[in-house]
Sequence to fold (642 residues):
Amino acid sequence: MADSLQAGERMIIEPIPNPHLTPEHLAFRDVMRRFVQTEIEPYANEWDEAGEFPRELYKKASAVGLLQLGFPEEYGGVELDQFYGNIASAEMARAGVGGVGASLMSHTIGLPPVAIAGSPELKAKLIPPTLAGEKIFALAITEPSGGSDVANLRTTARRDGDHYVLNGEKTFITSGMRADYITVAVRTGEGGRGGVSLIVVDTATPGFSRTPLRKMGWWASDTATLYFDNCRVPAENLLGEEHHGFRIIMRNFNSERLFMAAGCIGQARTCLEETVNYARERHTFGKPLIQHQVIRHKLADMTMRINASQAYLDHLSWRVMNGESPVADICLLKNQATQTMEFCAREAVQTFGGAGFMRGCKVERIYREVRVNAIGGGAEEIMRDLAARQLGY
Amino acid sequence: MKILVPVKRVVDYNVKIRVKQDGSGVELANVKMSMNPFDEIAVEEAIRLKEKGVATEIVVVSIGPQQASETIRTALAMGADRGVLVKTDVNVEPLGVAKLLKKVIETENPGLVILGKQAIDDDSNQTGQMLAALLGWAQGTFASKVEVSGETLAVTREIDGGLQTIELKLPAIVTTDLRLNEPRYASLPNIMKAKKKPLDETSPETLGVDVAPRLKVLSTVEPPKRSAGVKVASVEELVSKLKNEAGVL
Fold:
């Protein structure tokens, strides 16, 4: 393939073929590619360095239908299969600026609990403006005292008349600085998972405050610590029944992990594409880098892991579309994806050498996004343990 | 008013064109195809006229193989209402296209036809003009602005050295230039809606048009490769090279 490319021509690396894709999937991929190429990629460094991206991007993402993906049609969404989500994640990953996707799509973790368990009034009030890109939605579960240990969270919500009074802290919250609404996991009952509820907090409520956090990666994303100090939230903002929040949170994790896996595999592929193209241009010891066996082996290893991960992702997405909930495999897929991304980011920066160490090139940016994926949405260690338990080991 | 927009399926503008080994044409196997960019502008303009309440229906026509229906679907996803595929595996030349369009127009009776000024594959820039001649309609080519008021149409044309504004009587033919508008993205909800929009199929035989090529391709060759530049040591050397080698002084 590389031999047939002309000088200066870039090689584009597409995912391995997925036999389930329809012309509509491919049309959406074209739209997403153009959207990312014109609306995100040219500004990747600028936004990364600025630590945020313009709020206007939410509206632009709504105009192409990206924000609506997976939400009920009666509230302005488009209910489509998992492959559309995978395509969106993979195309976003081509820009190599993880923070943009993380904040732009934070409603995909914050809003589903509303769509699943909110009252009809709450859905009608919150879902349409979020899908239109007018309101920003976030999810707050992690606390300074613990992350994945959802059953032991400490933020409390005490019923007082027709309100709940919230007290406590949440941290590492994506879109935390700009969110207009946040789905917050709170303790309404006794200790353990049986006392956890979900409630939507309007960030304009007195008693709510937030501070920004600086991070290793995801620079373009606004991440925050949130404080609730006698924050009075209307009781109708409760999602589902009191003390039934844990199940909704767990339900959320499956789709979050599939999204993350698709994004990681996409970023790994972006690393490969960047590396192939760089290695064809860069000359050392009298020949292009790509003609050195040691580099070609790196490219082959990257390809092998990316294709295996993509096949796993396509297979599990297909199972989810057929009504299964393959929790153990989704956990393992997430690890497979984050480790593939880690390997490819390493080999990409290694092949770029000094140029890859310089701030602002795509592989350098992706290298900084490795850890957050291996930690967020369920750390690799938690994923292994959960998978092993689910498999009865 | 009904607007008719012809769209052509061409090699995607991002693809680097390769000449076939035997020189009979360019390589099309496994090459990404898309809507001709000038036609996207034409579709966009029609949609804007519909949004303004000037147009009531947008019909998209494509002439080509079965896969050209994908190009029609793209236009439907952008916001056109209905599609017509004139199915043929022949590489139809501009005159053949104009004759086929004339037949479609006779059944559809549009008040306005908006075409791309040219397709990026053969760069002919002929179809719109030929169609206007065959129909005896007014034409406004290379449009950078289109305004409909009642039975007339003001078209601002991009011509050498400036802009020319002309007034046309409807029905008319308009061909689009690059600066007319910036085409929208087909949104995901509209991609799904496009699936259900009607797409009729016909053929040159049914329309009674002979589309056999009138031209014969003798050879297709790559453009000459640009050779590497040289560094000159002095002004004298530069002047000497410009005089004796480049022959421009």
